[in-house]
Amino acid sequence: MARTNLHQLASRLLxxxxxxxxxxAFEGKLRDVAGExxxxxxxxxEAVKLLExxxxxxxxxxxxxxxxxxxxxxxxxxxxxxxxxxxxPSRQSKRGSFTYDEIGRALVERLLExxxxxxxxxxQVEAFDAEARALRDRISQLEREVDSANAREExxxxxxxxxxxxxxxxxxxLRRAVGGGAVVPPGEPVSDxxxxxxxxxxxxxxxxx
Length: 209
What we know:
By secondary structure, the protein is mainly alpha-helical. Helix content is 71%, strand content 7%. It is built from five helices and three strands. The chain has a three-stranded antiparallel beta sheet with strand order 1-3-2. Helix 1 packs across helix 2 and helix 4 (81-178) runs antiparallel to helix 5 (193-208). The chain is rod-shaped.
């Protein structure tokens, strides 16, 4: 596309901005308006610069890093070929350094943003990993405590069974001793007071175990 039609592109872009503006100000995505006007990104930048130099518009905020472009519209008068040709030399003298500086700043800003995002993601991964390790350690500790509790419970059950068996044997021996060798049936009351006292002592000792 020849550069001689820049005035036509600038006029179409200006008309699109004016149509999408409110109270003489445009705020939105410049690429959408430029696309409808038939401009690519390079020609859009050239047209915006031309319109700024001619005093038709002023770019208040450029649409970088997800922000909307804000443009104040001073005039909607179409751009003529003479306007574009008169502005062309000064634009060419400024275009190189200004555009490269702008690209350089945008590149540095993008690299810094990527570095910040990468640092944030690294910190998040490290935090999640530390939290996962802490949870695994806690689970292992709880498993050990459960195993220990189960072992203590089993030991107490064994001791209880041993105490019950010891008590039964003591009662049997006592009944035999009191009855002169005769076995007293289980549940049969013992009439001898001394025998009852001995039986109570044996039961107390067995339960204490």
